[in-house]
């Protein structure tokens, strides 16, 4: 257990702040042992993965538990599927690369998403027409009250758009220790979303493999998103708002160009477009700002604080609400 741990390198915004106590756990048994520590029983605690979806707005006056449980194991195999159990502390993109190298499909569209495997179900990570729920079989999590291991299948996870039970009623109550993914031996190429097919064309690929799709996704992401190692950020700061068809048509009357994608009888708007229309894209306020190529990404140019980022987000939300009567919801966990 460490005291007054600096967290700058443990969050992708690169916010300099301290945790009163910090512990890194490598096994389920170490979680059980935590129960004997007063820092765990008497203080608030927060579970940390790769820190790529968290904004610290100050020092954390409790215990940060960083999950570093490793391991990959095939637990079942059929003619069509591999059931792979992965430790929550494994890096997500390394897992994607591992699956592709073994010829197992299903996660290639999710290439280069930062963070760890254990956090992937928490917000049901998604990109380029695929969400982790599409390959999810089940997960193991320790109930922090009873210390029992519980299994959550897809239904129990209550997956939604960037959402799951772990952001709602189960929030903070479990440590996810392992995730089982059901990967495909027979590949279903999903290149119809965003710029993937255009990029594959430019790469001269006519019949893409899962490795080709992954390469295209990596290329698109690298050209669009800032690398947190160079410019602190947490990816998309806001969720794309989902509104009724009637509300969308009303907006369209005033803004004929407003983009919208039908989802389950409703319409998903592009938060980046709304923010851009309010003039925020590329704007800088002191140490922080809105990325010049992607209005959904708020960045820390150097010595920015979490409060500066949060204040910027609040200003953006106010402007979008005033102009479009739409309430943006942060995708990032704000602490
Ligand atoms: C440049 C960039 C691009 C991104 N692109 C995408 C994208 O395309 N799609 C997308 O969906 N997301 C994207 N993200 C967001 C982020 O990568 C994902 O949310 C990722 O799953 C977070 O993983 P993490 O390990 O860093 O989680 P953290 O940020 O450490 O934690 C996120 C949440 O999960 C909880 N948590 C973490 N591990 C566990 C565990 N083992 N048990 C219980 N709770 C846990 C934390 O308490 C916290 O509430 C992007 C982020 C960045 C910086």
Architecture blueprint of SSEs:
Elements: E1 2-6, E2 18-25, H1 28-34, H2 38-42, E3 45-48, E4 54-55, E5 60-67, E6 72-77, E7 81-87, H3 92-101, E8 126-127, E9 130-131, E10 136-143, E11 149-153, H4 154-157, E12 174-184, H5 196-202, H6 210-224, E13 232-236, E14 242-244, H7 245-254, E15 260-263, E16 266-269, H8 271-277, E17 284-285, E18 288-290, E19 297-300, H9 306-324, E20 333-334
Parallel strand pairs: 2-5, 3-5, 4-20
Antiparallel strand pairs: 1-2, 6-7, 7-12, 8-9, 10-11, 10-12, 13-19, 14-16, 15-16, 17-18, 18-19
Helix pairs in contact: 5-6
The structure holds flavin-adenine dinucleotide.
Flavin-adenine dinucleotide (FAD) binds at residues 12, 46-54, 67, 88, 113-116, 118-120, 122-123, 125-127, 166, 174-176, 225, 228, 233-235, 333.
Q: Which keywords apply here?
A:
335 residues, 20 strands, binds flavin-adenine dinucleotide, four-stranded mixed beta sheet, Uridine Diphospho-n-acetylenolpyruvylglucosamine Reductase, domain 2, alpha+beta, Uridine Diphospho-n-acetylenolpyruvylglucosamine Reductase, domain 1, globular, 9 helices, five-stranded antiparallel beta sheet, 3 domains, Uridine Diphospho-n-acetylenolpyruvylglucosamine Reductase, domain 3
